[in-house]
Specification:
Blueprint (H helix, E strand, L loop, with lengths): L2 H22 L6 H21 L7 E4 L2 E4 H19 L6
Helix pairs in contact: 1-2, 1-3, 2-3
């Protein structure tokens, strides 16, 4: 994998991670965190799709690396929602 292909995957992961966080309604951090959420969300989303026998939707292939966009967004939203539920503090009155 060349440097340009790696940078493209990182940008896609950042966008996917940001979209997943927006859907979950909980923002975990900056750009680096969005990249991590995007890659981890991709693994969660792909695993979930395989377990439920769902088709891959909107896949981007870069140098034989498949990055399913829809399942990555779903996985990122699930990850952000779980982290949001675990780290939110109750509102004090």
């Amino acid at each position: 994998m060349s440097l340009m292909e790696l940078l493209i995957l990182i940008v896609i992961a950042a966008v996917v991670g940001s979209l997943g966080q927006m859907l979950a309604g909980f923002y975990l951090g900056g750009c680096l965190v969005s990249i991590i959420v995007g890659f981890v969300g991709a693994y969660i989303g792909v695993w979930l799709a395989r377990e439920l026998n769902l088709p891959e939707l909107f896949v981007i292939t870069i140098d034989d690396e498949r990055f399913p966009i829809i399942w990555s967004i779903v996985g990122s939203a699930i990850l952000a929602a779980i982290v949001g539920l675990l780290t939110r503090r109750p509102v004090e009155v």
